[in-house]
Amino acid sequence: MALLELDDVSVTYRIAAGEVPAVRGVSLTLDAGTALGVAGESGSGKSTLAMALLRLLPRDARVGGRILLDGEDVLAMKWGRLRAVRWAEASIVFQGAQHGLNPVQRIGDQIAEPLLVHGLARPDSARGRVAELLEQVGLPAWRARSYPHELSGGQRQRVMIAMALACSPRLIIADEPTTALDVMVQAQVLTLIKELLAEHGISLIMISHDLSVLADVCDRLAVMYAGRVVEHGPSREVFHDPKHPYSAALAAAFPTVGDPVSRLAPKGLGGDPPDPMDLPPGCSFHPRCPVALDECPTLDVELWPAGPERRAACVHVRPEKAEPAETTLEVS
Amino acid sequence: MTETQAPVEAVGTARPTLLEARDLHVEFPSRGRRARAVDGVDLAIGEGEIVALVGESGCGKTTLARTLLGLERPSSGSVLYGGTALEYGSRALKAYRREVQLVLQDPMGSLNPRQTVYEAVAEGPRIHGLPGEQEVVASALSRAGLRPPERFFLRYPHELSGGQRQRVVIAGALALEPKVLIADEPVASLDASVRGEILALLLRLRDELGLSALVVTHDLGLAWNIADRVAVMYLGRIVESGPVEQVLTAPRHPYTQALLSVLPESPERVVLTGEPPDPTRIPGGCRFHARCQVLASGRAAEAGVDGRCRTEPLAVLPAVSTAQAACHYAAAVD
């Protein structure tokens, strides 16, 4: 059954100049024990969406729609209930581990904090649980006495993951957990995340702009553009055979080493992401789209079926259009 | 102390060497010890050639790049440009910087937020007293893909997208009509869709202007996308180098093999444990031996080189363009 269900979720920031629609009607489902990747570039709304899941957005953000965690609407929760849900049922791992940790507190105390706050351990018994958590993320127990600056970037990210695991949540939300890390350290952290998912049956929502990393860890993938999901489906299929031209551009941005097609031929996408206060009419991607048709500036795109368990918001998969049109996407 | 030598013809290519590191060492004091950030590097960049310098943080790649730019002075060894050893007087360095320009990562950090695009790009030409400032700025902007350039003159960095800001940084470097660009992680802070555009720009500058480039990165996909040659750096040394196709599809050094194996599409992973070791305590023998998967798996012992891996240091790889690896095992099994 679904652990998390997003039903027409929208987030609008109110600023002096007016309203900024950051997330515009996102509906997604996450089954228990599975991993969902959310891809997109800065300004696509992916991080705003992640923060909305636990109501971590600033006051000027208005959230609409329904966010059901285990059947319970997060948006309707009272403050006390929300506090209990954070950490204990769902926790979040932020990008840039150096800012997520308190620089003047020993990491053992930081990991113990959610345990103490939620009454899952007493101060005298917390130390054993902290040692256990450190071991789970591949750090020796004596590291509990270290301060964040004594750790490398990869080790700090492991501490963040230990904190997220502390209260045994069913869902972890990871926002760019490996972005600032070196390739080898990134591989270590991704391996750890995959092991934890397999061993503890935790569900994961992982946010990144790197489609290849998401496809590696996640079962399903949702690609966001200008606040909307423009494609979703099984991750390998979305990565290897994207149906939306924007997904195709993201997939091509990180070339496969050894693939002759990408040798001395970097693939990019012209233009820039749209200003959310001045979105293009019709399909918001059309000004940058290499395969746009005359009707795209006026067309109301929606997530049409694009194969088994797949959907894409592109005219090229629109039902009445699909059969004859060859939808090979070449992005130059 | 100008010593003029004939530029060395790089073996196997028709490209004469333009910029070269010769037996370069750069050391820093670090908590009472000496960090050997660059510990013996020979590297040549040919005219019109794009070389990718890859490695993890702390391997010395940024220090090597800064030394090639004249921003750090070598402890020993030399930097040669056009066959002439770099001098460190302020006038000599000023002249050198017209030829060899730096492109930084994070355009938000390298552009002054209170300066217009025009002022940012005009700064170099003014320092060097170039005539026809406005034409110089306009032509640099349009070569960096900001067209029509006049439209960007009075814009401020915060009014531009990330990709446009990186183009302004590149235009600033191009304004002096350099021969070499040294780019440190030029696309690391950019969005995925913009990344390819900036890399395509670097390729086009090479094709149209004959620019050489050293691109410092931890991203092997970037090397595959734009570089002719790749040099893999580990703990202050280049451990493998050669043509991109050869090194990245048939790597011979276990470290290069491990780096490639952790790319998402790769079938079999070798995840090295730990972080790169400390440049203040470079291990004896092969500097990679403590993390080497070939030594750990016993294959080095089968080849009868395990003793040498632990005790015998490897020679510095020479500045040639053919494929080579600093590895006892690779030498034994070839």
TrEMBL record, chain A:
Is Cytoplasm one of the keywords UniProt gives this record?
A: no
Q: Name one GO biological process term.
A: peptide transport
Keywords in alphabetical order, please: ATP-binding, Cell membrane, Membrane, Nucleotide-binding, Transport
Annotated PROSITE patterns: ABC_TRANSPORTER_1, ABC_TRANSPORTER_2
List the SMART domains.
AAA (SM00382)
Question: Mind telling me which GO cellular component terms the entry cites?
Answer: plasma membrane
Q: Which Gene3D superfamilies match?
A: P-loop containing nucleotide triphosphate hydrolases
Record localization? Cell membrane
Q: Does the keyword Electron transport apply?
A: no
Report domain ABC transporter positions: 4-251
User: What is one Pfam family matched by this protein?
Assistant: ABC_tran
Q: Coiled-coil regions in this chain? A: none
Q: Name one GO molecular function term.
A: ATP binding
Tell me the membrane topology, using the record's own terms.
Answer: Peripheral membrane protein
Instruction: Output the CDD domains linked to this UniProt entry.
Output: ABC_NikE_OppD_transporters
What's the family?
Belongs to the ABC transporter superfamily.
Q: Which PANTHER family match?
A: DIPEPTIDE TRANSPORT ATP-BINDING PROTEIN DPPD, OLIGOPEPTIDE TRANSPORT ATP-BINDING PROTEIN APPD
* Protein name as catalogued: ABC transporter ATP-binding protein
The protein's organism comes out as Nonomuraea rhodomycinica
**Lineage of the species this protein comes from:** Bacteria, Bacillati, Actinomycetota, Actinomycetes, Streptosporangiales
